[in-house]
Amino acid sequence: MHAQKSINSERCLASRIDPTRNYTLSPSLSYFNVFQVSFTIKELREQFKIKEWDSKLEISDEDQKLLTESIPKLERKKKRLTEVLVKNIGVSVGPKQCHFLFHRVPQKIEADHDGKVRSVILKNTESGKTEVLPCGLLIYSLGYETLVLDGVPQNDKQMIDMRDHVRVETNLACPAQVYATGWCAHGPRGVIVDTQQQSIFVANQIAEDFANNRKSSARGVAALLEERKVPFISWDAWKQIDQQEREKGAKSGKIREKFTTFESFLVK
Question: Which Gene3D superfamilies does its entry note (predicted)?
Answer without folding.
Answer: FAD/NAD(P)-binding domain, NAD(P)-binding Rossmann-like Domain
